Structure formats: structure tokens, C-alpha cells
Amino acid sequence: MEELEIHSKKRALPMPQVAIGGVIIEDNKTLLAKRNKEPHNGEWAILGGSVKLGETLQRAVEREIREETGLVVSAKEPIRVFDLIERDKQGHLRFHYVIVETNALHKKSRP
């Protein structure tokens, strides 16, 4: 396995990746997107993606939703944290994400 030196410590790769999801509920409707890549390609999910190095969870949610939809949101505190771990048929690890879901409030523009 590869090793990566981070601040003079060696860590085995691959490592779990931190990902975020923004839960947007407005007028009793939840905003979903159809995934266009693995894991779960083609399935409906809340909007989100990976957290960039040095980026807070809230800023990651706001950036991802803006990039994916053009909506400007204000991300709140996390509401749920879970692992998404998938293996192939031989038992080899395909994905390991630690996903943090956050409420995100749509900032409506004034007319």
C-alpha cells in the first residue's frame, strides 16, 4: 500500500474520504439530484461532494450546491454523520466515505 507523509506522520492509503451533503427542504419539497458517477450512479440523492483541504464542512456544502445548481445557500450545523463503505464481489474495498449531512437554507433573492 502507498504511504503519504502528512506533517511528518506516515499514513497508509487509501484513507476514508470526507464528503458532505446539503439537505434543502423548501415548501415541503426536498431538492435531489440524479448522480452521474459512482458510487450509486444513476440514483437520486441529496446534493453534495467532497470536502477540499482547508475547507470547512459548511463552506463545502455551500460551494457544492452552488456549483451543482447555481443556488446560494447557508449551511447550518451537521444533522447526521455516517459511513458509506462498499466492496466489490471479491471483497476488495471500492469506496469509503465519511459523509456529513447538513441542513442548508436557500437564500432567496429579493424581487
CATH superfamily: Nucleoside Triphosphate Pyrophosphohydrolase
Largest sheet: 4 strands, mixed
Structural class, from secondary structure content?
mainly beta
The fold-level CATH name is: Nucleoside Triphosphate Pyrophosphohydrolase
Secondary-structure element order, as H and E? EEEEEEEEHEE
Q: In terms of topology, how is this protein built?
A:
Layout: E1 3-6, E2 9-12, E3 17-23, E4 25-26, E5 29-30, E6 33-34, E7 44-45, E8 47-50, H1 57-69, E9 73-87, E10 93-106
Parallel strand pairs: 3-10
Antiparallel strand pairs: 1-2, 3-8, 4-5, 6-7, 9-10
Describe, in plain words, how this protein is organized in 3D:
The protein is 12% helix and 50% strand. The chain is mainly beta. It has a single domain, classed as Nucleoside Triphosphate Pyrophosphohydrolase, CATH 3.90.79. It has a four-stranded mixed β-sheet with strand order 8-3-10-9, with helices on one face. It has a two-stranded antiparallel ribbon with strand order 1-2. The longest helix is centred in the middle third of the chain and has 13 residues, at 57-69. The N and C termini lie far apart (56 Å). 15% of the residues are buried.
